Amino acid sequence: MTELTASPPDSPPVSGTRPAWLTPNLWWLVIPAILFILLFFLIPVLSLFASSFDKAMPGQITFQGNFSWDNYERIFTRSLYYTAIWRSVWIGAAVAAVCLVIGYPLAFIIARSLRPGIATLITILVLCSMQLDMVIRLYGLMVLMGDKGLINNGLIALGIISEPLPLMYNWVGVIVGLVQVTLPFMILSLIGSIRSINPALEEAARSLGSSRWHVMRTITWPLSLPGIYAGTLLVFALAISSYVVPALMGGWKVITLPIHIYQQIAEVGRWQFGAAVAAILFLTSLCAMALYIVALRRNAGGRV
Amino acid sequence: MSDIRLEQLTKSYGDSVAVDSVSLQIREGEFYALLGPSGCGKSTTLRMVAGFVKPTAGRIVVDGQNLTPLPPEKRDIGIVFQNYAIFPHMSVADNIAFGLKLRKKSRSEIDTAVRAALEQVGLTGFEDRFQRNLSGGQQQRVALARVLVTEPRILLLDEPLSALDKTLREEMKFWIKNLQQKLGITTIYVTHDQDEALTMSDRIGVMRAGQIEQSGTPQQIYEEPGTLFVTSFIGQSNILDVKCLEVKEHKATIELGGQVLQASTHHLIGKGTGAKLVIRPENVLMGQEAEAQGVPLLAATVLDETYQGAMLRYRLEVAGQEIVAERQNQFHLEKWDPGAVVRIGWTERRARVLPEDGAGSSSG
Lengths: 304, 364
Fold this sequence. Notes:
- Chain B: One of its GO terms (molecular function) is ABC-type polyamine transporter activity.
- Chain B: InterPro entries: AAA+_ATPase (IPR003593), ABC_SmlMolc_Importer (IPR050093), ABC_transporter-like_ATP-bd (IPR003439), ABC_transporter-like_CS (IPR017871), Mo/tungstate-bd_C_term_dom (IPR008995), P-loop_NTPase (IPR027417), PotA-like (IPR005893), Transp-assoc_OB_typ2 (IPR013611).
- Chain B: One of its GO terms (biological process) is quaternary ammonium group transport.
- Chain B: Pfam families: ABC_tran, TOBE_2.
- The complex is a heterodimer.
- Chain A is an all-alpha fold.
- Chain A contains 14 helices and no strands.
- Chain A is globular, with a radius of gyration of 25 Å.
- Chain A starts with a helix and ends with a helix.
- By secondary structure, chain B is of the alpha+beta class.
- Chain B has 2 domains: 4-229, P-loop containing nucleotide triphosphate hydrolases (Rossmann fold, 3-Layer(aba) Sandwich); 236-362, no CATH class.
- In chain B, 25% of the residues lie in helices and 36% in strands.
- In chain B, strand 7 (154-158), helix 5 (166-183) and strand 8 (186-191) form a beta-alpha-beta unit.
- The longest helix of chain B has 18 residues, at 166-183.
- The interface between A and B is medium-sized, with 19 and 26 residues.
């Protein structure tokens, strides 16, 4: 109650600011979150990165302090890893692009639907796909896309193809799997930004002589750029760091950076080298996003 | 410069009727206000004219051309929204050029037109500003410039002043009216503010429950309200229960508190039925003023007096009913204390008799 009496009783609340009793001395409420992040995220990640500078010793997990550049030298002297970096980046970018192209119309319809009931229903359907465990969903995809899956069997039965199409255990399967996993994130970030566009802007453009498509191109799309950026960055980050999807849908044939990390740590037991690959993945992801943001800033005229 | 005809324009959503068979004719260059409380259908009517809402029935005809099947972009109608709808990702110049680019004008034509439009709305030098750096009034002017530069046939204004503060609203009221007169553009103005409607319009349509209850000049609407709703919506009125004795040639003979009075009316009201006597507070005469006019007098008791600066407002009781009178606050005029008995009256043509709500028929 001290907070309540702290504000003078006759001072009117300033509109747009938080009530006075909410602001003071509430920072301690974030302590649990800070502790959790510190203990279960920062410490393990930092110690892993630190161990990437240790000499590689199979079976050794904890940080030794035997400083060496060996792990990084190994990465940068083998074309294998350059290929994996490039593969991870282009797959991530492709997944983000596919999600944007197929997610935007759906998000637009949800954001602009006149009846709130319909919007809620579609949103629930989108979220439903996230309720099921990712591994189960991917096995479902295998049933559909495998050599003897529904698609190939169906096409063969119809006589359209004689040999099964290579849909799985290659980049096609990985991209389809990643799109399936990340699409809801794209749609959710797009809905928010499209919904925040005042419909009067679109109407004003229409009555100035602009067709539906022209309005979409000149008003709706540019004004939803913040959501587009957020969605593509989120999807890219999820895709580039995904291990399960390339493992299951790529069948160990599409070797991305996370697959290398898994192999080094779980199969060979070389934690230090795996940690170095992880650090490279992290930096690659950061660099790609930074490049993207810089490029977009230039186009957006300071709106993001 | 165009004339507009709405023919039995109707919009219903399921069972509820938002606009109920509105027919209306607006002359070339006229400033027509649709006035009414929220939910009366005035905005829906405007949005049907603009093409954003598809009418359930009826037609919109401009210059003899049926606009009803056309999409908004083919109608050549300019609209200014309540929140101005300035494109936030474009500069002021690009906002104004938006419609011109679609009309395939050359770069130099557009530049000239944008500059002229900005000068017209008094915003020269604002070309490179963005919406976030404009005040409400400036956004309003940009929105008008953006619309007017395309030389639309009709201008629609949807509550354009309601987001502005009071001082600016007064200023913009006259500014918009002047601009409209200078351009001579046919304008439909939607508002819930009677002051705006009365001061700006050539004619006003008072809307209620999807219908135009009365359409006329501001003077007609204020001085000869046709229904109780219009009476109570526009300005202040005393509405007294009276008994109607006779109606003859727009003159009603009525009885109030045992006294027989005359008043004007446009309605046919049955003999001996209850009716409403409507009189504006400023038309209630008191004391010597009433006696000097030689009008029938009634005895009233002063309930209280409210000081309003330039005006004094008396609450009176006459024949068991309350009536409010407003008088100029001038030193030489009589004043009364609560409890005092005063003679009041009014001239015949300032008092109007209306049927009880929903009853009676208009005879013009």
